[in-house]
Amino acid sequence: MLTEKQIKLIKHSWGELKGVDPVLIGDVFYRKLFIAIPEVKRLFTNDKEEQSKKLVDTLTLIVARLERISELTDDIKQLAIRHVNYGVTPKHYEYVGGALIWTLKQVFRTTWNEELEAAWLSCYTLLANTMIDAAYGKSVESD
Question: Distance between CA 30 and CA 141 in Å, rounded?
């Protein structure tokens, strides 16, 4: 569960990205992801710009509802199930989280600190665990 302070930190930091082109954010994220785990590149069949916009739109929706994240639980679970159909495995979530945090560090270079990183890591862990549980069941966590 995220603390009130973590929610505020995440919302404030994400709000600073309003004027940034989502394609740029997506490009940085996906480049990092494909360097870390090149075999996942084949899973992305959408146009790069479209995929980047989906990433940013999804994050924007999640950040906007962090205080009421339970309202998104069903949507997050459906997203997880769709990702299984794309070929995503539980191990991919670790790489995605790493690429996301790395991307955020680049974007917020001057304001990034341990507290902000811990907030984003908590947020991503909550989402990833919800998705993994929905798509694969709790037994996968022991893998």
Answer: 25
Question: What is the rounded (10 degree) CA torsion for 128, 134, 137, 143?
Answer: -20
CATH value of 4-138 in 1.20.1740.10, 1.10.490.10, 1.10.10.10, 3.90.550.10: 1.10.490.10
Q: How many helices (H) and strands (E) does the chain have?
A: 6, 0
d(CA 121, CA 97): 8
Predicted TM-score (pTM) of this structure: 0.89
User: What is the chain's pLDDT, residue by residue, as a tens digit (143 residues)?
Assistant: 899 999 999 999 999 988 899 999 999 999 999 999 999 999 988 888 999 999 999 999 999 999 998 888 888 999 999 999 889 999 999 999 999 999 999 999 999 999 999 999 999 999 999 999 999 986 344 33
Domain boundaries in the chain?
4-138
Check: CB of residue 103 under 8 Å from CB of residue 32. Answer: yes
